[in-house]
Amino acid sequence: MTWRRVLLLSCLSAVVLLSAENRQKLRADELRREYYEEQRNEFENFVEEQNDEQEERNREAVEQWRQWHYDGLHPSYLYNRHHV
């Protein structure tokens, strides 16, 4: 009977160790996933800011070009817009 108990205890301890290892691996995977998600979100925000700044610079450049080349004969383009 004692060898059965020893075998049972050794099997149970092995299962407990595997369970603990699996929990550690799952936690590490979760932390890694959170880290990469945060990095991706930061990069997406950075790209969005860069695009917004580029659009603003383009808008300003077009506005300056229109003001420079306005001949005064026609109403300003601001008054001819079909949308607001």
From TrEMBL:
Its main location: secreted. Keywords: Coiled coil, Extracellular matrix, Secreted, Signal, Sulfation. The keyword Oxidoreductase does not apply. Pfam families: UCMA (PF17085). InterPro entries: UCMA (IPR031386). Residues 1-20 form the signal peptide. It is found in: Secreted, Extracellular space, Extracellular matrix. May be involved in the negative control of osteogenic differentiation of osteochondrogenic precursor cells in peripheral zones of fetal cartilage and at the cartilage-bone interface. This is Unique cartilage matrix-associated protein. It comes from Daubentonia madagascariensis.
